[in-house]
Amino acid sequence: MRASCVLFTTLVALAAYYVYIPLPGSVTDPWKLMMLDAVFRGTQQVSNLIHFLGLGHHMLVLNFIIVSFGHKRAWSTAQVKVTDTDFDGVEVRVFEGSTGPEEPLKRGIIYIHGGGWALASAKIKYYDELCIVMAEELNAVIISIEYRLVPKVFFPAQVEDVVRSTNYFLQPEVLKKYSVDPSRVAVSGDSAGGNLAAALVQQFHQDPSLRSKIKLQALVYPVLQALDFNTPSYQQNANTPILPRHVMIKYWVEYLQGSQDFVEALIVNNHTSLDVEEATALRARLNWTSLLPTSITRDYKPVQPASGNARILQEMPQLLDVRSAPLLADQKVLRHLPKTYILTCEHDILRDDGIMYAKRLESAGVDVTLDHFEDGFHGCMIFTSWPTDFSVGIRTRNSYFKWLDQNL
Ligand SMILES: *[C@@H]1O[C@H](CO)[C@@H](O)[C@H](O)[C@H]1NC(C)=O
Ligand SMILES: *[C@@H]1O[C@H](CO)[C@@H](O)[C@H](O)[C@H]1NC(C)=O
């Protein structure tokens, strides 16, 4: 009896030690966030173990677990018709809201899910629910793209998938088939999906014949650059769930097919040290002095080593490619971009990517709404239902829907 009591107490203490992480007081529902983080961390560790034992690639294993637990069949509701199909060879899940009598044509939203270019799916519960509610509340047609993932394909295949399926959707006869108003189409995505959405919109807007086809872009805590992993938000949130810095950098390295041996060097910005010429020209496009408010930069200590490791960019030049890092695009490209919404969270390494992109777009003359959540954490917008429901999840989602409703 006593022994089992001691064992039980030890196990509880160990579990608490595993779950507990210090979090800032201003973050939403801290205990729930710790639990969510512990589950995600545990799943990642199991996947790493399976990888280590040579039984499968860790990203495949992790995604297998996520998709098996969360998979949802295409299931229509009373208000929304849900179908799985493909657009020019790229799988998509289509959500069609019902048409009101006065509005025969609906608004269209191309949605690109997040997950580090390697995880999740348009068909898991979280994204399926988001798109159903979006189709219903906005009375719109949502195209949720099931682009191919790492390690089956790597950069730029993910970009090509979203470009190809969007091109297909924007054909007049396809828009007509889905009763979509050609002048009211938006592109949107969260996290790595926000990265792909931003890259897609930049590509379209370089082509004058396609330029007019996208009315607006809505980017939710997007990934936008890999030049500097020590922006103020990267430093402040290096260990914040759901996306600690070293995990984000591993996603980058996998996406660009680099060596994981570089992760530690990337953490200290050795890939873009001051003696690396390719980075020097681009640094002005990520100038925190002019792009971030002084409330953020007041006590900031940038990390810009004088010398680093030139081999990293030789092996992964795509770290500075605008199709992977849309924040680094030329001002001439930004000038042509459509009206933009960017949602950022305070407790997120990617906060400053979003703020800097908003500022650059604004300076280029684009109409930008920056919607910042002081108690938000990375990924919160998809966590809206039990047991992973967060008040900031509901608030971010409502705010995002409201902007789309008023602007699309
Ligand atoms: C960043 O902006 C500041 C203030 O506008 C300017 O003095 C500085 O030269 C800029 N740095 C780079 C690398 O462009
Ligand atoms: C970064 O580069 C410097 C200079 O080459 C080197 O001394 C240091 O060990 C590197 N740091 C890491 C973490 O790779």
Automatic annotation (TrEMBL):
GO biological process, alphabetically ordered: lipid catabolic process
E.C. designation(s): 3.1.1.71
Pfam families for this protein: Abhydrolase_3 (PF07859)
Record-linked Gene3D superfamilies: alpha/beta hydrolase (3.40.50.1820)
UniProt GO MF annotations: acetylalkylglycerol acetylhydrolase activity
Keywords: Cell membrane, Endoplasmic reticulum, Glycoprotein, Hydrolase, Lipid degradation, Lipid metabolism, Membrane, Microsome, Signal-anchor, Transmembrane, Transmembrane helix
InterPro entries linked to this entry: AB_hydrolase_3 (IPR013094), AB_hydrolase_fold (IPR029058), Arylacetamide_deacetylase (IPR017157), GDXG_lipolytic_enzyme (IPR050300), Lipase_GDXG_put_SER_AS (IPR033140)
One GO CC term, this protein: plasma membrane
Boundaries of every Alpha/beta hydrolase fold-3 domain copy: 109-265, 318-381
Domain of life: Eukaryota
Subcellular location: Cell membrane; Microsome
Reactions accelerated catalytically: 1-O-hexadecyl-2-acetyl-sn-glycerol + H2O = 1-O-hexadecyl-sn-glycerol + acetate + H(+); a cholesterol ester + H2O = cholesterol + a fatty acid + H(+); a 1-O-alkyl-2-acetyl-sn-glycerol + H2O = a 1-O-alkyl-sn-glycerol + acetate + H(+); cholesteryl (9Z-octadecenoate) + H2O = cholesterol + (9Z)-octadecenoate + H(+)
Catalytic residues as annotated in Swiss-Prot or TrEMBL: 191, 348, 378
Family statement: Belongs to the 'GDXG' lipolytic enzyme family.
Protein name in the entry: Neutral cholesterol ester hydrolase 1
Species annotation: Erinaceus europaeus (Western European hedgehog)
